[in-house]
Design a protein that fits this description.
Distance between the termini of chain A: 48 Å
Largest sheet of chain A: 6 strands, parallel
Strand content of chain A: 15-25%
Oligomer: homodimer
Number of domains of chain A: 2
CATH class of the largest domain in chain A: Alpha Beta
Number of strands of chain A: 12
Helix content of chain A: 25-40%
Largest interface: A-B, 46 and 46 residues
Shape of chain A: globular
Strand order of the largest sheet of chain A: 3-2-1-4-5-6
CATH topology of the largest domain in chain A: Rossmann fold
Structural class of chain A: alpha/beta
Chain lengths: ~350, ~350
């Protein structure tokens, strides 16, 4: 799409933590977004809700959204399981009729809906399902451990804790230092932002690690550093399989642990609270032990998501996390990402020395 | 199928370790198997190759196989990635033309092949793809931890180490003791044997744990003990995601660790040796730590596959594994499964006491 003008649907869920896809596209490509559809927040702006995104308007109906003259409708939330709320179908049909393409990262593929597919053909529009996996994925064979660049994976204490955003912030900072740095997208939002990648949570289970391996091999071309977007959490009751397949398929040389500072329970924004998030040092132990069972790796820093703290609290939270783990820690979105950038550069220096020696 | 008469295709791979599906159906339902097609071993019997299965003949062509008057052709091997060797298509077509149904556990669904599908319709035959996942699987929410029966999962040091067979042996032994015991099949072979189940390695990655949860909830009906078939290994570079999703979705109260005694490398029968299998005590640590991150669990016994050792060596291997881990150990196929049966019963007694207390 040469001049993308997205209307993002995030109905009932446009929120700093809930509407991850919407928020990330607004953060990294605000000029591509003409509006957000959320009936509960109509009349506000992206800036009002997210604290960034400027004057991008929030509208309360598909008609008001189409009046902003988008050329594509993007699904901006990722509901558990990735299925589409039923009433959105009519909005998407109106979008196609108004000349918009459709872009989705849901597990349920829009292009599999016969009536939407027929409408798209009739109006000459495209439907892009970012979670549709490539054909002929391999079974992982540990090939990612053999690439030349230094590979860093973000891992989390839960879903939606900053694993993609941290890598995007670091990608920019490392590039600014003159290091050839490739971001590897493993989820639908990362794919929307970067333009390529595979949603590893949407492949057939036997091929999770194979998909990750293939992505790292591609990301390793012409790169000094490969930053892989992590998924889920090693102790998430629903998604840990994706997390571990990605960890073992990507064979990262180092890990960055992402945590949302105020969160107390796994998945507390999606299911009934049950599993209390253990201390960060417990995650460091778990990820290093299980990751190194396939390829030696260690956690080299903590990326803390402090969006709902004031500045003093946020700094205190970073200091506390650093003290607990003995690792550099910052919120790479809110503050300068330097502590984590320096951790990656130092760890890569050690990696290069070990390979020379 | 009222009176199943299977011709099993295991061409080039009929072998105690390779043709897992063929071997297991022959072990548990020998009366259903009229023959095995393997051009390399034609003229021998199942007994010659496997050490069990009696006079079931091995034939060298599809014509010789059809002369045994099967009413179904079963795919008896599980190649890495689950894809069908090209030349088998012609054999399957001849099977359909001769009035046979088709039964497969491959990732590539036979029913998706237009020419086979058309032939099946023409001849009024069925094609069963055991790996085709159910629709509308849930995201796991830890519900399996709430079931009443005592749930035991087999975990392994690698693929193909005895995780299904051990549970089938224990199911029979526990039933014989009067305990209501349900076997939960999580792979195609287990499904062929038990008649229900879901191949958790074939579901979309986000739903591995959800599929496991659903299976345990079903297996828990009218049961004192639920024995869940494990998959893969926690440090298998290709399949660990499936292993962990199953572990976290099933919420087992206890684990049995399965190992093939003489194996030194992960996946040595499938890919180039690379990852040396660590000591059993390392696996005990890994599985308990990562499993208990979602639901408290511990390893209560070791099931050793000693098929390629003589009797003295096999007994020595069991003693060595027990000494290393401090856990009861036996080969539950070769020897009496009592040490593991007793371990399950004792662990369940403790579980019932804790629930009362």
């Amino acid at each position: 799409m040469a001049d993308p003008r997205f209307l993002i649907i995030a109905d009932g869920n446009f929120h700093p933590l809930e509407s991850k896809t919407a928020n990330s596209v607004i953060r990294y490509h605000p000029s591509r977004v003409v509006g957000v559809l959320d009936r509960q927040k109509a009349g506000q702006t992206a800036q009002d809700v997210l604290g960034f995104g400027g004057a991008i308007p929030i509208v309360g109906s598909i008609e008001a959204g189409l009046a902003l003259r988008p050329n594509a409708i993007m699904i901006g939330i990722a509901p558990a399981g990735g299925r589409l709320p039923d009433e959105w179908n009519g909005w998407l049909a109106k979008g196609l009729e108004a000349g918009c393409d459709l872009i989705s990262g849901l597990h349920t593929f829009l292009s599999d809906d016969p009536s939407l597919a027929a409408l798209a053909v009739k109006h000459g529009r495209t439907i892009t399902d970012a979670r549709k996996p490539p054909n002929d994925l391999p079974i992982a064979a540990g090939l990612a451990r053999l690439v030349d660049p230094f590979v860093v994976l973000t891992v989390g204490t839960d879903c939606n804790s900053g694993k993609m955003t941290s890598q995007l912030q670091l990608t920019a900072a490392l590039k600014a230092k003159g290091l050839r740095t490739n971001f590897v997208a493993t989820g639908q939002t990362g794919i929307f932002i970067e333009g390529w990648g595979t949603a590893v949570d949407a492949v057939v289970a036997d091929f999770i690690a194979g998909a990750a391996e293939e992505l790292v091999l591609r990301g390793a071309r012409d790169a000094d550093i490969v930053l892989v977007e992590g998924q889920g959490s090693i102790n998430h009751p629903g998604y840990s399989g994706v997390t571990l397949g990605l960890l073992h398929g990507a064979c990262p040389d180092a890990l960055l642990l992402c945590h949302q500072a105020t969160r107390e329970f796994i998945g507390e924004y999606r299911v009934e609270p049950w599993l209390r998030i253990p201390p960060l040092s417990k995650y460091v132990q778990l990820y290093e032990l299980i990751g190194s069972a396939v390829h030696p790796t260690r956690v080299i820093g903590i990326a803390l998501n402090t969006y709902d703290l004031d500045e003093t609290q946020a700094k205190a939270a970073c200091l506390a996390a650093a003290a607990e783990t003995g690792l550099p820690c910052t919120d790479p979105v809110r503050f300068a990402p330097d502590p984590l950038v320096n951790a990656v550069v130092r760890a890569r220096d050690g990696y290069l020395e070990r390979r020379r020696g």
